[in-house]
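Throughout our pipeline, every protein is held as a single compact record rather than as scattered files. Such a record has a labelled line for the sequence and another for the backbone structure tokens. The remainder of this section carries one protein's record, kept here as part of the documentation:
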Amino acid sequence: MAQHPMLMYTLALAVADVEDNNEDSKTFFALCLEWMATDIHHDKMVACHDELLRSLVNASEYTGSTSIAEAFKTQSTQLENRMPMVNCSGLLAALSRMALLFSDEAVDTNDNIRACAVLAIERLSTVEEARPIMSHHEGIMTALTRANFKKFSTSHISPKDLGEDGQYIDNINEGDSELEEQVHLLTKVALKNLADIL
């Protein structure tokens, strides 16, 4: 399915269509891209992976659901995906834009999108060859600096999302009050990773 010509591109166009007010359709199409992001990785499907990343960037303006941010977070969990993500045109700008979303007390979607984006940025910052690119990206550095001072909703974050193989976690359970602290810790780790280059 992922190798179908233009499928991911078409899904991204449908998600990003500002004239279409059908939120259910947009949410479903974004969810399709999220599902694809769980199975398509750079080491196995290079051409499909590049198309997926471009599609996610095109759909990243949509904030009606967390699916696109979740897709970026999922992609960043695989080491082989990280440099292609950093090198994908517009991807760092998309992540920084998501990480800088304003909070809306009535809806926590933006908080969840922000948290997913910050976690993806932290994972990308663990790759040494990505650090010079990321540390000179104004949006990434601004997003991490601001994220260091913002409160995060952690309803879309689970302990397995934090750090490499749980290296920053010590017996934290989903819903635990320490989860938010761990997101802030990862923000500081990412800032330290990138500041070392400057």
Observations:
- The chain has ten helices and no strands.
- The two ends are 43 Å apart (CA to CA).
- The mean pLDDT is 84.
- The first helix runs from residue 7 to 16.
